[in-house]
Amino acid sequence: MVILENVNLVKQANIYFDGAVTSRSYEENGVSKSLGVMMPGEYTFGTESAEHMEIISGSVEVLFSGLESNWEEINAGEYFEVPANSSFDIKVKTITDYCCTYLK
Fold first, then answer.
1. Which of 7, 79, 91, 92 is close enough to 38 for a disulfide, judged by CB 3.0 to 4.6 Å?
2. Nearest Cα to 7, choosing from 42, 40, 37, 31?
3. Residue 36 CB neighbour total at 10 angstroms
4. How many domains does the chain have?
5. DSSP character for 67?
6. pLDDT tens, residue by residue, 27-82
7. pTM, whole model, 2 decimals?
8. Residue-by-residue DSSP string for 48-102
9. What is the CATH number of the domain that holds 62?
10. Position 64 in a domain
11. Counts for the chain of helices (H) and strands (E), in that order
């Protein structure tokens, strides 16, 4: 288990899709991040900043908007990155724990 030390945590949860996706925002060494859980389902997210999305546990499929791509399977221990000012569709196959790092 990874233990985060010396972080600034926002207590209020980010709740999306009627509670099917939740996260907590925090800052670690000046970098904005969020830790969350996604329940099985299909969702579309928009991005302002570029994102590095690490799948801690679970399994998803991702489709990137505006890019010539197919659904890509991402499993526990893997990650994907999304450009700024774009969007992505995600199919959550099992309950999924994730960490999102907002890139500058």
1. 92
2. 31
3. 20
4. 1
5. S
6. 999 999 999 999 999 999 999 999 999 999 999 999 988 766 789 999 999 999 99
7. 0.90
8. SSEEEEEEEESEEEEEETTS----EEEETT-EEEE-TT-EEEEEE-S-EEEEEEE
9. 2.60.120.10
10. yes
11. 0, 11
CA-angle at 101, arms to 17 and 59, nearest 5°: 55
Would you state the structure tokens that stand for residue 49, as one six-digit string? 């900043």
pLDDT in the model for residue 4: 83
**∠ CA 89-58-14 to the nearest 5 degrees?**
60
Burial (CB < 10 A; 0-12, 13-18, 19+), residue 92, is buried
Domain ranges, residue 44: 7-103
Q: In the structure encoding, which two tokens stand for residue 59, read together? A: 């399994």
The rounded distance, in Å, linking the Cα atoms of 82 and 98 is 14
Residue at 2 is within a domain: no
CA distances, 45 to each of 3, 65, 97 (Å): 28, 10, 16
Burial of 96 (0-12, 13-18, 19+ CB in 10 A): buried
Give, for 96, the enclosing helix (H) or strand (E): strand 96-103
